Amino acid sequence: MQILVLGAGRAGLALVRRLHSIGHDVIVVDPDIDKTADSLDSSIIKISGIVFDVDTLKEAGIESVDAVCALTDNQNQNIMAAQIAHKFFKVPNVIVRIFETHELHIFDEAGFVSISSPELTVDAFLEKIQSLTDEKPLDTCECEIMGQRARFLLLEIDNELIGCKISEIEDTEGRHVFGIWRNERLILSLPHYKIEKGDRLVLAEV
Hints:
Layout: E1 2-6, H1 10-21, E2 25-30, H2 33-36, E3 45-48, H3 54-59, E4 67-70, H4 75-88, E5 94-98, E6 113-116, H5 117-133, E7 139-145, E8 148-156, E9 176-182, E10 185-188, E11 200-205
Parallel strand pairs: 1-2, 1-4, 2-3, 4-5, 5-6
Antiparallel strand pairs: 7-8, 8-11, 9-10, 9-11
């Protein structure tokens, strides 16, 4: 695809490099493009000018591009450029960077896609935090029982579960406590069994 990137700030340059690395033809427009031109591959077309200036956009070949990405550090400039690209030049795919999250969806009917920088940042942090807290089974195995495929997971037990009865442990993922791995042997679970320090939990899911 031929993609026009408006803005050569950190986000813009990162997008330009990534698009170029995966084989897209990239044109980048920025008033200060000369300051960053040397850091970009020579095959990337670089245009110096205001991102919402019609003549500058024409010079960049906006009339023939497949997509426009407006991601300067100024939300108003991004919106203006996106509106010009969509309404005036009829670019089929226009993506605009938004900073105010409460305004994220007010441009949906304008015909272009809005992306919130703060929301993406928050999502990335939450995804990373979630990955730190996700269960990581010590071991897994699968077998067939009476024609039904079952999967068993061996999990570490949180300290707060020590002393709890099997009947008090609830698994919200639709899994069942199959047993306790204690002193290198499996003890099939019964409701009144209590969790001891060093135990590992064996869960079964069908």
